[in-house]
Input
Amino acid sequence: MSAAMSQAVPVRQSHWPIYLMVFGITVMWSANFIAVKYAVEEMPAVLAMGFRTLAAGLLMVPIFTSAGRSAAEKRSLRADFWTLVALGVGGVTLNQLFFTLAMEHTSVAHGSLIISTTPISVLLLARLMKQERLTGRKILGMLVALSGVVLIQLTPEKSSGAHWLGDLFAMCGSLAFAAFTVFGKQITKRHNSITINAFAYFAGAIVMLPLIFWAGGTLDLGALSTRAWLAIAYMAVFPSVLCYLGYFHALNYVAASRVAVFSYLQPVLATLMAVPLLGETINSALIAGGCIALLGVAITQRG
Output
């Protein structure tokens, strides 16, 4: 996930349609794990990520250009141009590249659980930058989450497809997004999600373009299956563009803390999808470790 948090605006209407929309967004983000797995089965992770970024960047062009901006917003955009580019490449492109590499080397169950601990990475980095303070409850939550991840890693019977290298890539992706969240805290208050995501994918597409030619130079693109191309299309349209726009629309009506609760469902939904669609198997240690890790994250966020 990449984007800025905003304050909810009280609106006198039923919130159930918003919650249903957020649940649908969560399902689509969870399904992205499956789509990436399908893509990297037939092409290198760098190429899959490059196609996703390029397609998402093209989709963001009409959205970005059609958004109205005041004179003050235009001045702010010019002033923050290179900062937005750096944040987009460092926090979004790098995050999604590590995520794609993770799915190439580990199971959905492992990768999704490790990524779900991102709030802890954000908290630790924010503490180093003196943006947050650590309370006893937050420290307890981090220790609980860490114990869950350690249990998953140390169990002798890994879930099918799991590997420490992919888990490491997932952790690196988590750290990249944490850096985006912390270092971009001020700038994300001055620009909306459309601007931030547009710059992320515009800049990311430029950076990834040489890698697309490099990674795809020896690959017969005509031999790729329809499923692989549909997976790329899904990655670009839904998790990269539509989900973020819907997510930020929800934040206009519901408190961010309530919307964030749905993120706990992602590893559960992604794993449930991976069992029938990818043939992954899970074991008791993974279930126990996952529950402990998610509990730790919940304690930390409430600390």
DSSP finds 14 helices and no strands in the chain. The two ends are 22 Å apart (CA to CA).
